């Protein structure tokens, strides 16, 4: 399988000097074409920064991102993003159909083709016949399906998803997870999904990348050996799933992770101390 | 069938009844006050305050006494009402076009408002009627002066509300549009302006009512025709029936303009949840 996404030496720092905050530190990984990779990490560890750097929305302070071999500088052509906040990501003044058509508006496709594509994308996510409705007339889960359809309509080489199911209720969440796996298999899209939910990352992923606390770096890259066809009940009770989710949980919250985080905190504190004493010395 | 039809007729009657009820709630007080006005002015005869019925007669004679070739419209309609309407709508439309275009450019530019903000705040603080003498000097008495006054007053609400509106596009929509590589034209047309429309419409309503006020004022101060001119002329000719007729017309125009703009707004902003 060819490499779709290649991230190497990626770092991002907000601000400069003493006030600088390192969100992502020296991240390197690859995602093969057609793979569904999940990135899991504690809240506030810099997952969103990483995703936005990959999307080309945020130029990283160091390192490179390449999509099918091309270096990413701006937002690349064949990429789509699904955000967590569907109600703010969809355009309330456009009908559902027009929302899905949105990324096709400036393509060379004629009107009829655009409409067909939008209808196909909507039926792929199980939403046929709601083209004429306005987004707020649909439930939250349906709205997020519309934004997935919108991302799929542009036929992206890489689909980035930022905590896509964090704002829907648990039942809808299960439905959407299965929907994503089905659509991803059907269309062969490469997906990189960011989440803070350990179970979700294991259930959804062909592979789970575990991130440390801020500044984010990769602590483990685990292949998920579960069968391609997954089921919310049987998969989640299988021993393989349970052991894998425990492994991820230990990596995130276990003593090793805590020790590493503590060490980082100590180092930061010492650095701060030395800066303070330096300032004091200078004042004296 | 008859069983099915019965509720339908009941429902129709109910709807008509509700319509009548709603109409009565809206206009009952108005009608009562007009009747009261009629009564009081008939009891206390005063040349300055003619009864509404006489004002209506004067108005009908003034506006609807023309020959069939003029669709029965009186000369006053062509001499005064149409020129005034042209000034209000022309001045307002120019303000809207300039205000929305300039407001969009300034609102989306990072530093634009830093340069012109204080200047706008200063200009907006000047009461536009105070500039009528200045515009008389610049444009002489006539439509140029009136349109200039109207534009000077009605531009600011349209412009500043647009600036405010186009800045209110939320961050997730900005990133969504960027992630889809939305070209500039589509970004402005499909995202920025629709997001700004609720605020823009609030500005448009304000600037339309200001336009009407400034039309009347500028025509009272110096004009060769127009509603304000005719109103003042009637007063100076001691024709108080006509004077009141013109005042009433200004009220009707203001009400009509606002209602028309609200109807457009309801159509354009129909996507907002909670509307209709």
UniProtKB/TrEMBL annotation, chain A:
Q: Which InterPro entries match?
A: AAA+_ATPase (IPR003593), ABC_transporter-like_ATP-bd (IPR003439), ABC_transporter-like_CS (IPR017871), ABC_transporter_ATP-bind (IPR050166), P-loop_NTPase (IPR027417)
CDD domains reported in the protein's UniProt record: ABC_NrtD_SsuB_transporters (cd03293)
UniProt keywords, alphabetically: ATP-binding, Nucleotide-binding, Transport
- Which Gene Ontology molecular function entries are recorded, alphabetically? ATP binding
Residues in domain ABC transporter? 5-238
Superkingdom of the source? Bacteria
* Positions of transmembrane segments: none
Keyword Nucleotide-binding appears in the UniProt entry: yes
Q: What protein name applies here?
A: ABC transporter ATP-binding protein
Q: Which organism is it from?
A: Amycolatopsis ultiminotia
Its lineage reads: Bacteria, Bacillati, Actinomycetota, Actinomycetes, Pseudonocardiales
UniProtKB/TrEMBL annotation, chain B:
Alphabetically sorted, this entry's keywords are: Cell membrane, Membrane, Transmembrane, Transmembrane helix, Transport
| Entry-linked CDD domains | TM_PBP2 (cd06261)
Which SUPFAM superfamilies does the protein's record reference? MetI-like
Highest lineage ranks of the organism? Bacteria, Bacillati, Actinomycetota, Actinomycetes, Pseudonocardiales
Entry-linked Pfam families: BPD_transp_1
What is the similarity comment for this entry?
Belongs to the binding-protein-dependent transport system permease family.
**Where does the protein end up?**
Cell membrane
- Its recorded name reads ABC transporter permease
Membrane-spanning intervals of the chain: 27-49, 89-107, 119-141, 186-204, 210-232, 244-264
């Amino acid at each position: 399988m060819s490499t779709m996404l290649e991230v190497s030496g990626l770092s991002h720092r907000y601000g400069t000097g003493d006030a600088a905050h390192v969100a992502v530190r020296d991240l390197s990984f690859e995602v093969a074409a057609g793979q569904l990779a999940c990135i899991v990490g504690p809240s506030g560890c810099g997952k969103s920064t990483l995703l936005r750097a990959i999307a080309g929305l945020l130029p990283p302070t160091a390192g490179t991102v390449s999509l099918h071999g091309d270096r990413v500088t701006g937002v690349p052509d064949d990429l789509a993003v699904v955000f967590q906040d569907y109600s703010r990501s969809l355009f309330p003044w456009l009908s559902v159909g027009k929302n899905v058509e949105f990324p096709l508006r400036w393509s060379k496709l004629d009107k009829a083709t655009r409409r067909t594509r939008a209808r196909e994308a909507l039926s792929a996510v199980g939403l046929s016949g709601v083209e004429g409705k306005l987004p707020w007339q649909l439930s939250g889960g349906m709205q997020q399906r519309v934004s997935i359809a919108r991302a799929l309509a542009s036929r992206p080489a890489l689909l980035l998803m930022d905590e896509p199911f964090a704002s829907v209720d648990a039942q809808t969440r299960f439905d959407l997870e299965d929907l994503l796996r089905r659509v991803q298999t059907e269309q062969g899209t490469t997906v990189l999904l960011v989440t803070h939910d350990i179970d979700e990352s294991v259930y959804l992923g062909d592979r789970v990348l575990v991130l440390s606390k801020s500044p984010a770096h990769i602590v483990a890259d685990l292949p998920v050996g579960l069968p391609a066809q997954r089921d919310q009940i049987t998969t989640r009770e299988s021993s393989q799933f349970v052991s894998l989710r425990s492994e991820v949980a230990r990596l995130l919250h276990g003593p090793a992770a805590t020790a590493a985080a503590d060490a980082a905190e100590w180092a930061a504190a010492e650095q701060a101390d030395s800066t303070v004493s330096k300032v004091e010395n200078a004042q004296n | 069938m008859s069983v099915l039809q019965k509720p339908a007729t009941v429902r129709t009657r109910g709807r008509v009844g509700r319509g009548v009820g709603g109409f009565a709630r809206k206009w009952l007080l108005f009608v009562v006050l007009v009747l009261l006005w009629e009564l009081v002015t008939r009891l206390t005869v005063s040349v300055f305050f003619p009864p509404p019925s006489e004002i209506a007669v004067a108005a009908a004679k003034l506006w609807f006494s023309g020959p069939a070739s003029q669709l029965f419209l009186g000369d006053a309609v062509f001499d005064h009402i149409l020129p005034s309407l042209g000034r209000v709508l022309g001045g307002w439309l120019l303000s809207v076009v300039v205000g929305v275009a300039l407001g969009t450019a300034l609102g989306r530019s990072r530093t634009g408002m830093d340069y012109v903000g204080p200047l706008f705040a200063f200009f907006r603080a000047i009461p536009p009627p105070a500039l009528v003498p200045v515009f008389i000097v610049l444009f002489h008495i006539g439509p140029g002066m009136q349109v200039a006054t109207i534009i000077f007053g009605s531009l600011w609400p349209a412009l500043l509300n647009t600036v405010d509106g186009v800045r209110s596009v939320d961050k997730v929509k900005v990133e969504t549009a960027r992630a889809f590589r939305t070209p500039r034209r589509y970004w402005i047309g499909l995202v920025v302006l629709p997001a700004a429309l609720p605020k823009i419409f609030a500005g448009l309503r304000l600037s339309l009512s200001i336009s009407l006020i400034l039309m009347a004022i500028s025509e009272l101060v110096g004009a060769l025709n127009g509603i304000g001119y005719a109103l003042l002329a009637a007063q100076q000719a001691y024709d108080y029936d006509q004077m009141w007729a013109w005042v009433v017309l200004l009220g009707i125009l203001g009400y009509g303009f606002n209602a028309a703009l609200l109807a457009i707004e309801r159509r354009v902003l129909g996507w907002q949840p909670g509307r209709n």
